[in-house]
Design brief:
With 134 residues, this protein is mainly β. It has no helices and nine strands. The strands form two sheets. Strands 3-9-8-5-6 form a five-stranded mixed sheet, with no helix packed on it. It has a four-stranded antiparallel sheet with strand order 2-1-4-7, with no helix packed on it.
C-alpha cells in the first residue's frame, strides 16, 4: 500500500466544495498579526490527499518554534475510495500565546506527509496620539 500524497496543505479563511467535491480554497495566508497575545483567530486548515483506494490513519499536529512538544490537532482514519482523493477541513478558533513560527504537520502513522507554516506576531495597534501627522 502506497502512502497518500499531499496535493495541498494550507491555512486559509475557508474552503467551499464544488461539483465533484472539488475544493475552492479562499484567502490562503501564512502570517497573523495580533495587537496583543494571546490572540485567537478563526481559520481553516485544509489538506487534500491523493492515494490508492484504502484506509489511512491521519494525524495533524502543531509545534511552535522552540517548543519541546507537538500539540495534537486532529486524528482520524480516512477511507479513500475509487475517486482517490480525500479533503480534510479543520475550521476552528486557534489560540496563539507566543509570537514566532508555528508548523502544522500532517502524518499517516509515523510518516510525515507535509508541512504548512504560520508566523505569529504581536504589534500593538497605534493609538490616535501615536499615529504620525502628515
Amino acid at each position: 500500500m502506497k502512502i497518500p500524497v499531499v496535493n495541498m496543505f494550507a491555512t486559509c479563511e475557508y474552503v467551499t466544495m464544488g461539483l465533484g467535491e472539488r475544493p475552492t480554497v479562499v484567502d490562503v495566508f501564512n502570517s497573523i498579526q495580533f495587537a496583543t497575545l494571546p490572540g485567537t483567530h478563526n481559520f481553516t486548515l485544509f489538506a487534500r490527499l491523493l492515494a490508492e483506494p484504502s484506509i489511512h490513519p491521519i494525524h495533524i499536529k502543531a509545534r511552535r518554534e522552540g517548543a519541546k512538544q507537538d500539540v495534537d490537532i486532529f486524528s482520524t482514519e480516512i477511507s479513500i475510495g475509487e475517486a482517490q482523493a480525500h479533503n480534510i477541513m479543520i475550521t476552528e478558533d486557534f489560540t496563539f500565546d507566543h509570537p514566532g513560527k508555528y508548523t502544522f504537520s500532517i502524518y499517516t502513522g509515523d510518516e510525515l506527509l507535509g508541512n504548512t507554516y504560520l508566523t505569529i506576531s504581536s504589534d500593538p495597534i497605534p493609538t490616535q496620539e501615536e499615529v504620525p501627522k502628515q
